[in-house]
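S2.1 Query sequence (DUF4218 domain-containing protein)
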Amino acid sequence: RSQTEHHTGDSILENLSIEMVSQIPLDYMHLVCLGVTKRLLQLWIRENKSNRLNAENINLTSQHLINIKYCIPSEFARKPRTLLDIDRWKATELRQFLLYTGIVILKSTLSPLWYNHFLSLSIAIRIMANPQLCTKYLAYAYSLLLWFVSNYGVIYGEEYISHNVHNLIHIANDVKIFGCLDNFSCFKFENHMQKLKRKLHNCGKPLQELSNLIFE
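Output structure tokens follow.
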């Protein structure tokens, strides 16, 4: 608590015998996939001219996504969709784009600087998502994330450096403590969410309702 002015009280989590900073890891499903990756795509297709791709490259990227969906193996839960559907992309689709399809598709539509910047994030996350690579090349992944974050403001503008972008430099430390990203990501709980939702009745207080159901 080095900045006491930002604290208004004590958290009940402090009663647990864990370290509040190092023992509560960041979730890459929300931080990287739904956060940074989705925001990059939105910058490329919607923001001001300095950050936005031209209409031709936006359409070309979308067409590549449509064409490549016929080559996606059954191991992937979803097929690629056009950039026009970006607001409805699920976390698994964004992960697929970051780690697989985006590497191929964006090479012909992004400038070399933008592409290498995206590639640094993709490679870093791929390393940290692999149980073997994350132990051998974690320092390299961390250096890639540092480069990505330090150049984010230079490329897109300081005003676009979000909390998610900043936290990328901390996720490597979580991998050092807990192992590969999938050891502590929310992806494994996604299918279980439907089971929980079916138990709720839209009372406006889902947490209280679920708690009552558990203790009935």
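The radius of gyration is 19 Å. The chain has two domains: 24-184, 186-215.
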